[in-house]
Design a protein that fits this description.
single chain, alpha/beta, 4-stranded antiparallel sheet, 15 helices, binds iron/sulfur cluster
Length: about 450
């Protein structure tokens, strides 16, 4: 008799390089040398359709950090010189004005997310100036959601009070790992006391949701150390946890070259770290939303998942559903549903464009009808765990997607027929893999690809 496939077997089987689908098509498919006039024209058109009715989202990238965490893969600039804040804010304000000149009515802001870098590198008064400068030129949607990524080491009570008064109700702290030896190796010394203070202060001031980012697969992590980290941080009862896989890419993230590769967990140890974390989170009452995100059932993210109102974009899962995400700041990405555009990644190039009154976008992608349709399938599955097929796509679905779905069905990850699919409870852990069946670019290039473009799921 054949032994029953266990969850661990499935995790091993589906631990393949697949995207996180914060966009479709994914970034490796995009092209440099974006046609800026076409981008401007499409943005105008989409804005006039969606702004008034649904509002728009703003992502603002604040890239400065005081010290380098060696594992980091973000676009950041390390400096202890805070005079850089002034010039950067001027550039963001000017970039926003360039968009306002293009658009024919005031933007209705439904969502703002400040990401980085370290947004709390900026002083409370500078953050206030930034948000107020946006508010002055916009209409604020009644049920808006403003959120920020805070560093536990430098998020002060003044930051939190200022942000709260500006309408921020959600904060995410990069906790990563609480073990002193791991923290030493990744150059992120962050005593638990700091995380506790930052969390307690946010709650006392009135923040409704606190998220912690944790990472598995870091150098020196062991099963015992990650278990301790979870025990300690779960005492603070964050409302959400993002439990990310560390991607070791020293050829693009130079700080990672400082690691002794012998300190990294082996692929099997990394898998065990993931399974341990997931087991602890599940026992502690956190619901696996999918794609690395866990939430308490009282949190708005879980409620949105339950009510089928969850949305996904470059900021990850979000409870607000807008069709336009405008990215401001160096390396930021804008998404208007039928096109993506990314800002210049080097600070001096970004400044140069803005100084010449040019939109600082350098690469992106214009979606065709097929991309738009398959993007919807991927969004439906990642946000609601189900989708309905349009009969007009049957030929291509039969040719590319259905053979993949049959494999997932054998492992009881989905139930499906020619009209649609629903992800099963065990399938929820493999959402990325299931979405990849609808990624026509990935499927068509599978054979041609000589090296994986994405990190493995674990
Ligand atoms: S992990 Fe965060 S704080 Fe550390 S260097 Fe990267 S962006 Fe800066």
């Amino acid at each position: 008799m054949q032994a029953k496939t266990t969850f661990n077997d499935l995790v091993k089987k589906y631990n393949q390089p697949v995207p996180r689908y914060t966009s479709y098509p994914t970034v490796p498919v995009w092209k440099d040398g974006l046609d800026i006039n076409r981008w401007r024209q499409l943005l105008k058109q989409q804005f006039s359709i969606h702004n008034h009715k649904d509002g728009i989202s703003l992502y603002i990238h604040l890239p400065f950090c005081e010290s380098l965490c060696t594992y980091c893969g973000c676009n950041k600039k390390i400096t202890t010189n805070h005079s850089v804040e002034e010039e950067y804010l001027l550039m963001i304000e000017k970039e926003f004005s360039l968009y306002l000149e293009l658009l024919e009515e005031k933007p209705v802001i439904r969502e703002i997310h400040l990401g980085g870098g370290t947004p709390t590198f900026f002083s409370p008064s500078n953050l206030m100036r930034l948000i107020n400068s946006i508010k002055e030129k916009s209409v604020i949607y009644p049920l808006h959601e403003f959120s920020i990524e805070g560093h536990p080491n430098n998020t002060t009570i003044e930051h939190l009070k200022t942000l709260y008064d500006l309408g921020f109700r959600r904060i995410s702290y990069g906790v990563q790992d609480n073990d002193p030896e791991v923290q030493r190796v990744i150059n992120r010394i962050q005593p638990l006391e700091k995380v506790k203070n930052a969390t307690d202060n946010a709650r006392v001031i009135g923040f409704e949701s606190v998220n912690f980012d944790l990472i598995y697969g870091l150098p020196k992590q062991t099963l015992e150390s990650i278990e301790r980290t979870f025990q300690q941080v779960l005492e603070l009862r964050p409302d959400r946890i993002a439990f990310y896989s560390y991607a070791h890419v020293p050829w693009t993230s130079r700080g990672q070259r400082l690691f002794d590769e012998n300190d990294l967990p082996s692929p099997d140890q990394k898998l065990q770290l993931y399974l341990k974390g997931k087991e602890i989170l599940t026992k502690a009452g956190y619901f696996d939303i999918g794609m690395d995100h866990f939430a308490l059932t009282k949190d708005a993210l879980y409620r949105a998942w339950q009510n089928n109102t969850l949305h996904r974009n470059f900021m990850g899962y979000t409870t607000q559903h807008t069709s336009i995400l405008l990215g401001l700041g160096v390396s930021s990405i804008s998404d208007i549903g039928i096109a993506f555009a990314q800002n210049k990644k080097a600070l001096h190039e970004y400044y140069e464009c803005i100084s010449k009154n040019e939109l600082p976008v350098f690469r992106g992608y214009f979606l065709n009808e097929e991309d738009v349709a398959f993007r919807k399938y991927i969004l439906d599955i990642s946000c609601q765990g189900k989708t309905k097929f349009d009969p007009a796509h049957l030929t291509i679905l039969e040719q590319i997607t259905f053979p993949e779905l049959s494999k997932f069905e054998e492992d009881e990850l989905i139930e499906w027929n020619e009209t649609g699919l629903a992800v099963t409870t065990s399938g929820r852990h493999f959402i990325r893999n299931i979405c990849s069946a609808f990624d026509l670019h990935l499927q068509r290039n599978k054979e041609a690809a000589t090296k994986p473009l994405f990190s493995k799921a674990i």
